[in-house]
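Write out the bound-state structure for NDP.
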Amino acid sequence: MTLPLPKGAELRQDTSAFLSNGPKKLLINGEWMEPLDGETFPTYNPATGGEIVQVALAGEEDVSQAVHAARAAFEHGPWSKMSGEGRGRLLNKLADLIDEHADELAELETLDNGKPLRVSRRGDLPYTSLHFRYYAGWAGKLEGTTVPVSAPNQFVYTLRDPVGVVGLIIPWNFPLLMCAWKLAPALACGNTALLKPAEETPLTALRLGELILEAGFPEGVVNILTGPGEPTGAAIAAHMGVDKVAFTGSTAVGRKILQAAADSNLKKVSLELGGKSPNVIFADADVSRAIKGATWAAFSTAGQECVAGSRLFIEKPVYDQVIEGLVEQAKRMQVNHGFAEKVHIGPIISKLQLDRVMGYIEDGKANGVEIVTGGERLGGELAEGYFLEPTVFTHKEDSLSIVKEEIFGPVVAATPFESWEELVSRANQSRYGLAAGVWTKDVSKAHRFARDVQAGTVWVNGYGMFDPAAPFGGVKESGFGREMGKDALDLYTQVKTVWVGL
Ligand code: NDP
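---
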């Protein structure tokens, strides 16, 4: 088997072995199965454009089989009788296996998604196992409450029940980590799951499936269904046997999922959608630190992050200094394939996504924005892949598409501001509200901004930090529901109230 590896890259033996053992199958009821109609689709390496391997495409019938297996496991299998402590033990075992296979998983992630191997290995992988450990701790601690009521001789208490069969639909920017964001709390709470990774990046979810079986999760508890949004994702969202869908991705698809829930069984839905997050540098900030922070906020993961600090507001007195520093930092960034020794950011995920990003840049240019650095696709040895220069543009007009829509590429819109009122009004002038950043040495200004900005997460003098214990999610069209932390338990449990006549 010849893999589409960039020049000079070599894979570990275990990674190659995983890739070369034939087309990847669906995990249904504890077994790896061919799809019923035998269909497959290719997954590509975005650094070379070459096909890595064929992967099973789950159709509606495969989804139904998986729902059936998940329902049986939820209602009758050993999982349904397992204590929270038992579930926690399995989650910890899975975390151990992820750590044991971290090098291999990181390579698969870099191959399939393109992100630098160092980022996969030191970022995505440890956070993935940390998530499973964090929720392993919660599994045995799902308490209800006792409720004092006004009616006499009544004892009222609540139980926290799992929701049932949950569909977890994952995007391609943090393929394995997002599986953990959803699977870990879902399983800790006693649900059974259908996991659908993105079509672009199915490999680490499939390897995770093997580790789930090795850890000893009972059959049917986790089912993995690879395939495109339509038919696979849509079939999960519309299925009458799915009790809840947790989704991360675009606002457009989030709407479709809500619609499918409304048209089927009114399944519960939680949505983590797009963003166009404001990142603010005040004149009193530690400006050189803020410039570095703003660079990473805009360009890490090649800007393909829902929280990307893609609208940079700079207070007038330091505007020129920040733009100059930002351009210098952007030019220093090494754009390269993820296995290269010198690499800060990898490729865009696909030709489609690259074209989408380039479309925004072209439209911006046609409408008078000034590209101060970047804006071009990389050629030479990188011409086969989907590489784009880190791009900074400046603007005064907030209504342009490039300024207000989520681009999901290494592109940042920089603009000056002069007053508090102007800043808050422009920062909040967005249909999104996922995250925000603020750089200042004035502690009250920082808290005031955190109070006034419409966002689910605010970072002060930093950007893009996450922890399994810290809740995360959006306001406005960035979605609803909070993943991570104790709050995520609310997404995967429902409260039952019990009245006891005394
Ligand atoms: P999508 O929203 O299409 O994909 C996210 C997930 O939803 C994928 O697993 C996808 O499947 C699945 N999906 C697609 N259509 C349906 C459907 N009708 N029913 C159920 N599931 C579906 O994102 P794209 O990959 O198309 O990226 C487009 C834009 O979305 C980006 O430019 C970016 O703006 C935004 N995005 C935001 C993310 C975030 O973290 N907030 C993450 C990814 C994208 P499949 O991939 O197999 O088609």
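---
The chain has 17 helices and 20 strands.
Residues 169-173, 196, 198-200, 228-230, 233-234, 237, 248-250, 253, 256-257, 273-274, 306, 356, 406, 408 surround NDP (CB under 6 Å).
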